[in-house]
Design brief:
This protein is α+β, with helices and mostly antiparallel strands and about 140 residues long. It contains two helices and six strands; from the N terminus they run βαβββββα. It has a single domain, classed as Thiol Ester Dehydrase, Chain A (Roll). It is globular.
Length: about 140
């Protein structure tokens, strides 16, 4: 299935992940929970690439909702290419979205998912305005 990326989404990061044997379920395909782990991995890797790793004593991103749409099965062995997009910055939030393709099937999206993310002060557990450096990255 060919998925069109809405124009307002901005590609910010991509990475490849090996499909692990343990990612599969009894049906012989990648378990649905593993897709959410893939989405988590690209979000955390993207933040780390920006020099920001979450810590309980500082500020960072918290997910308010997450979703994943499944189009084709992923199976072991293989490698998944994840592409992360961002959009719609608000005062403290922005949207993220990622596609998942096998590296041996470029252009064929097997799944797509994302999350609404909010910037918070962890000790106070209250939202804060997106930092200027992050707002610049997630703005069109």
């Amino acid at each position: 299935m060919k998925i069109e990326i809405p124009e307002k989404k901005k590609l910010v990061y991509q990475m490849d992940l090996p499909i692990r044997w343990g990612d599969m379920d009894a049906m012989g395909h990648v378990n649905n929970t593993s897709y959410f782990r893939y989405l988590e991995t690209i979000r955390i890797d993207w933040l780390a690439s920006l020099g920001h790793t979450p810590g309980p004593d500082g500020e960072g991103i918290v997910i308010v909702n997450a979703f994943c749409n499944f189009y084709r099965q992923l199976e072991y062995p293989g490698t998944v290419q994840l592409k992360m997009y961002v959009s719609d910055p608000g005062r403290a939030t922005f949207e993220s979205w990622a596609t998942m393709e096998r590296t041996d099937q470029p252009g064929v999206v097997h799944a797509a998912g994302g999350a609404t993310m909010i910037w918070v002060d962890f000790p106070s557990q209250k939202s804060r305005a997106l930092p200027d450096w992050l707002r610049a990255l997630v703005s069109p």
